[in-house]
Amino acid sequence: MFQNRTEALALALPAAIFAALVFLVPVILLLSEGFRVADSWTFSAYADFFAQPLNRTVFLRTLKLGALVTLVAAIIGYAAAYAIVSLPAGTKGRMIGLVVLPLMISPVARTYAWIVILGRTGIVNHALMAVGLSDAPIRILFSETAVFIGLLQLFLPLMIISLVSALENLPKDVVPAARVLGANWLQVFWKIILPLTREGLVVGGTLVFTGSMTAYITPAILGGSKVLMLETLMYQQVTVANNFVAASVIAFILVVMSFAANILLKRIATARNRS
């Protein structure tokens, strides 16, 4: 398309400059605040952050919920994606449209809908009392369970879309061939489908894990002040405590965790493929 690399770089240069000015520079300045205390570079802000029991609890809760949402999304996503790619072309397109549809709705509206479903007078409590599993409404909102459900519903479509794309590139004859040779469905998935769709799992896992850790609206609404996560804690540090150093520390932790998740998923996928 281009006569030489210089022409391609010249066309990409304006976009690169724009991205650097409006994204990279502000992010670097923000992250640097956590290392700069009293005109000196130090890690004392990170030591002070993890020295507080509340911060350690919030960090571990964020990591736990992010990993749990990613794991459950992968399990559900593989089943849904395999079912979708097995459908005829017309039906497949409609099902993918239904998967994408929630992404077109505001996360605020989707999260507030869970208040109606999970509230004390919501559908879930009415159903539990109707079948005799509970004599009184149980508290589901403002708990880790509510945050988990909200995050899973919010980011599951991203996992399904990533896995659908990967499964569509899977050779059509490998699964029937494995079944003919006597492999059960668990062996087919573990030894054939999973290694051949690892790239889709890495992409989907990174999107879901990163999104679960950095989402603010869902933990703030469904968790409130009782279930703090790193993103809601960062908001409090900026708006309530006016502590930009602590906010910078939290932002850097979120960035590191996002990159670490991507690297870990790639390592697992590569190791599984080699084995």
Question: Any overview of this molecule?
Answer:
With 275 residues, the chain is mostly helical. It has a single domain, classed as MetI-like fold. 76% of the residues lie in helices and 1% in strands. The chain has 13 helices and two strands, in the order H-E-E-H-H-H-H-H-H-H-H-H-H-H-H. Helix 7 runs antiparallel to helix 11. The radius of gyration is 23 Å and the shape is globular. The two termini are 40 Å apart. Belongs to the binding-protein-dependent transport system permease family. CysTW subfamily. This is Spermidine/putrescine ABC transporter permease. It holds the Pfam family BPD_transp_1.
Short description:
It is found in: Cell membrane. The protein has helices spanning 5-32, 44-51, 53-85, 89-100, 107-118, 123-130, 144-168, 174-180, 185-196, 198-214, 217-223, 230-239, 244-274; strands spanning 36-37, 40-41. The chain is mostly helical.
Give short descriptive properties of this protein.
275 residues; mainly alpha; MetI-like fold; 13 helices; transmembrane; MetI-like_sf; membrane; Spermidine/putrescine ABC transporter permease
Rg calc:
23 Å
Which superfamily, in CATH terms, is the homologous superfamily?
Answer: MetI-like
Largest sheet: 2 strands, antiparallel
Q: In order across it, which strands form the biggest sheet?
A: 1-2
Tell me the structural class.
Answer: mainly alpha
Shape verdict: globular
Number of helices: 13
Distance between the termini: 40 Å
How many strands? Answer: 2
Total domains, how many?
1
The CATH topology assignment is MetI-like fold
pLDDT < 50 runs, ≥5 residues: none
Strand content: under 5%
Secondary-structure element order, as H and E? HEEHHHHHHHHHHHH
Helix content: over 70%
Determine and state the CATH class. Mainly Alpha
Mean pLDDT: 88
